[in-house]
Amino acid sequence: MNLAIALWLSQDAVTNGAVYALIALALVVVFTVTRVIFVPQGEFISYAALSLATLQVGKVPGTIYALISGGVLVAILDSIAALRRKSLKRLPSIVFVNVVLPLAIAAATWWSASRPDDLLLQVAVTLAIVTALGPIVYRLAFQPLANASVLVLLIVAVATHYMLTGFGLIFFGGEGLRAHMFPDLQFQLGILNISGQSIAIVVTSLTLIALLAFLFGHTVYGKALRATAINRVGARLVGISSEFSGRLSFALAALIGAVSGILVAPITTIYYDTGLMISLKGFIGSIIGGMTSYPIAAVSSLAVGFLESYSSFWASAFKESIVFTLIIPVLLWRSLTTFRIEEDDEL
Questions:
Q1: Measured between alpha carbons, how far is 298 from 160 in angstroms, rounded to an integer?
Q2: Quick count: other Cβ atoms within 10 Å of Cβ 278?
Q3: Which of 77, 124, 177, 321 is a good FRET partner for 102, with 20 to 30 A between their CA atoms?
Q4: Is 346 a residue whose pLDDT tops 50?
Q5: Region 234-256: what's the mean pLDDT?
Q6: pTM, 2 dp
Q7: How far apart are CA 304 and CA 320, in angstroms?
C-alpha cells in the first residue's frame, strides 16, 4: 500500500462513516426514548433510495400505498381510542394527520412521477413519504407494547423488519435500482479526485448532526425527548406524552434513514434488503456508544468506516466478518464491567 491508495481508502472511509454515523444516531434516539432496538432502521434507507430511483424513471413508488393504507389504519385505531375516552375534539386532527396529509403526499408523488427531471421535487417527496412512515410504524407495531420488556420489543422489531422487507420486495421487485447522480462535480485535491457526491454526503451528515444537537439542546420537543429518555415515568408525571415522544423519535429515525438512503442511492445499487447490512454497521457504532452516547456512537461509526475500507483492501473476502467482529470485544468488555441490570419500573 502506498500513500495514494491510503488516501483513496480514507476518502471512502469518511464517506461511508458519515452515513453510518447518521444511522447510529437514529438507533440511539429510538432506543433511549422507546427502549426499542430498532432493527428495521435499514428499511427506511432502502425505501428512500428505491423510491427516489423509481420516481426518476417516471413511476409511482409502492411506498405511497403503504403510507395511505397505514395512515387509514392508524386513523381508525386512534379514532376508536378517542371515542372511548370521549375526546371527540381530537377526531378532526386525527383524520387530518393520518388521512389528509398522506393523501396530499400521494398527490405530490404522482405529480413528481410526471416530472422525472425535477430532482429537488423528487427528493422532497421521498423525504415526505419515508418520514411519514416512521410514526405509522411506531403506532402499529410498538405503541401497543410500549411497556413491554426490551426483549419483547426486540422480537417485535425483528418481526417488523421481516414484514417491511417483504413489502419492499412487493413494492420494488428483486432487482436493484440506482438513482441518477446528483450534479456530477469533481474536485482535485493533490492526488485525490473527490466527487461532489462524497462532499454532499459528508456535509449533509454534519449538518444533520448539528441540527439534531440544536433540537435536543434548544427546543421544547428536543427537551421532551431528552426527558423521556432519562426518565419515562417522570416525564409522564410532568405532562410529557410517552406516545408523542415515541412517534417523534420514530419520525426522526425515518427522516435520518430517508436522508441516508437518498445520499447513498447514486453511488451504489440498492436492493429491497440492502438496508439491513448498512444499518448493522451503524448498529456497531451505537453499541460501542452503549446505545446512549451520541458523540461516541458517531465517532465509533467513523471508525467502522475506516475498518471496513482498509479491510476491503487487505482482505476483501472477509471485510464484513472483520467489521462485525469488532462488536465482540466491546460486548465482552461491557459484560465484565456491568455489575447489575436495572429494569425500568413502570407505574
A1: 26
A2: 24
A3: 177
A4: no
A5: 87
A6: 0.88
A7: 11
